[in-house]
Amino acid sequence: MKLNTHIIKDYVSFPIIISFLNSSPLDCRLERVTVYRQDKVRQSSDLTLIKLDELTALRNSEQEEAYICFGYDESIEFPKNMDIIFVTPEFNPLEIMENLQDTFNLFSNWEKKLLKLLNKNAPLKELGECTLPFINNPIAVYTSGLRNIFFCERKKDKNLMLYSEEDTNKYLPPEEIDELKFNQEFISTIDATEPTLFSAEMWGYRILFHNIRIYDIYIARIVISETERPFKVSDLPLLKFLSSILEIAILKQDLPTNDHPQDFETVVNQILDKESVDESKLKRILQYENWNIDDCYFCVAIEISSYDQVIHTVSTIGSILEANIPGSVALQQKDYIFLIANLNVGGKTRESLLSVLVYILREGLLKAGVSEEFNNFKNLGEYYLQACDAIRIGSIYDETVWCYRYEQYALKRLILRAAAESNVEALCPQGLLRLIKYDEKHKREYAKTLKIYLQNNLSVVKTIRHLYMQRATFLYQLKRILEISALNLDNPKVKLHLLIVFEIMEERKLILSGKEHPFEI
Questions:
Q1: Which InterPro entries does UniProt cross-reference here (predicted)?
Q2: Are 474 and 460 in contact, with CB atoms under 8 Å apart?
Q3: HSE-up (13 A, CA, CB side) for residue 321
Q4: CATH placement of domain 264-408
Q5: What are 390-426's pLDDT values in tens digits?
Q6: In this predicted model, what pLDDT tens digit does every residue of 210-256 receive, in sequence order?
Q7: CA 444 to CA 467: how far, in whole Å?
Q8: How far from chain centre, in Å, is Cα 79?
Q9: 321-348 as b/e: b if 16+ CB within 10 A
């Protein structure tokens, strides 16, 4: 493992007069200890032992170099490209060199232990425990959804421990997660790519953390809590090195960031994208959850808030859903949490599960669309669209509702999708088009009268009451409507066609007047 002067300063045992360290704490490039000789070419990887007069002669050097200098004169200024640790000239250089070599060996041995654990696929906790003697503060790793993967800390009385065994694989308490959603300091840490310090404002102690990324995706965070000793500058490079080892371990062991079977999300995405899926593979994956292809399912699409997307607590919400809705699996799909519920496994009815869901939605200020039940997992894509359309439509027409059942919006869905078509005339029967043109030419409202008549199930009494019209006047208009349109209102299909077209035309008017619409036009 390569070191730097910040680590050297914190871990050598000999006294230091003063140090001037200008390099980044994260820049580790020192590999060996050497003694200065004027005729010897110095490398950036060298930590060089040097006398004060020799160092003074090098003040014009432009190389980025690191020195242990014997002697100190506060009147002398040195360039900022040098890292210098000053010790008293009385020290025996051999003892200093031996001490420095011991420090290099200390971290070399730590690296070897970590690599040995990595090679044998040891549990992640063992990597943390191997690091405790250097960090001397509690260490934990959380998923991006704030679930604790492991923790480790120095053994002490139980009441003095920061963590307990019950914390393993548990999420942060909901109240802490809710507080983090509105904590701007925490939100800003999500994109951090280097070890970063989080203030003591929320928990009462500072936290040093580093985000673990795989393929540039933030999947976990290693945190060190400042509860046993103050942080050192050298903690930053050590944390970053440990994080790099943990990243390899997570990737090498293919550790899931959730509790779903391997390839489950891949297969679901293939179905949603209408790709062919190997049925034997699908059966094998579903069996992990004790599911069968022909079980009874329904889908839920839960709208993700902007805060949840920013701080990556989607998996936390998913975990809460899975814990409270038996036989369910929660995944993230774009702007939704996608919940798949198996009624055979859960042993509950759709309505009983939805009553639980509504409570969770209210608590989290969330909204959801719910599909109808279906009995073939391979048809998942169609029912996912049902759930998505239900929430899109419901959010517009019923803003105060938390849970939108598809069956309440199925007809509206058909009408809205048709209303998004550019040519509404192509959907109209010829007789209705003739009637509309007659109205435009003669300033009549026969089409409106026909619509009210159909909506009242061809009841003359209800229609004239609705239109505030005399019976004789209405019957005359009805006679003219039938003469002009030549529509057979005794035919149920004709009536249904006309009713649907009238609804489409009404929605089209709203769209053109600027009303929000859930589907692209």
A1: CdaR-like_regulators, PucR_C-HTH_dom
A2: yes
A3: 28
A4: 3.30.70.270
A5: 998 898 888 888 899 999 988 888 887 777 665 677 7
A6: 999 876 767 789 999 999 999 999 999 999 999 999 999 987 776 65
A7: 14
A8: 46
A9: bbeebbbbbbbbeeebbbbbbbbebbeb
Q: Say which CATH topology domain 121-252 has.
A: Beta-Lactamase (3.30.450)
Torsion sign across C-alpha atoms 95, 101, 107, 113: negative
Q: Which two tokens stand for residue 40?
A: 């010897």
| H helices present in 302-398, as ranges | 306-311, 314-324, 343-346, 350-364, 380-397
3-state SS class at 309: helix
């020290």: which residue's tokens?
Answer: 91
Please, where are the H alpha helices in 170-278?
174-181, 184-189, 235-252, 264-272
Which of 172, 184, 126, 134 lies closest to 152, judged by CA?
126
More reliable by pLDDT, 61 or 386: 386
The residue type found at 395 is S
End-to-end CA distance of the chain: 60
Map out the domains of the chain as residue ranges: 5-99, 121-252, 264-408, 419-512
pTM strictly above 0.70:
no
| Domain at 419-512, CATH homologous superfamily | PucR C-terminal helix-turn-helix domain (1.10.10.2840)
Q: How far apart are CA 132 and CA 148, in angstroms?
A: 18
Asked if 267 and 356 touch (Cβ cutoff 8 Å), the reply is no
Angle at 447 between CA 443 and CA 449, to 5 degrees: 100
**Residue carrying the six token digits 């489950």:** 264
Q: Which amino acid appears at position 221 of this protein?
A: R
CA 238 remoteness from chain centre: 27
Position 480: which residue type?
R
CB atoms within 10 A of CB 137: 23
- Residue showing tokens 């939108």: 404
The yes-or-no verdict on residue 80 having pLDDT over 50 is: yes
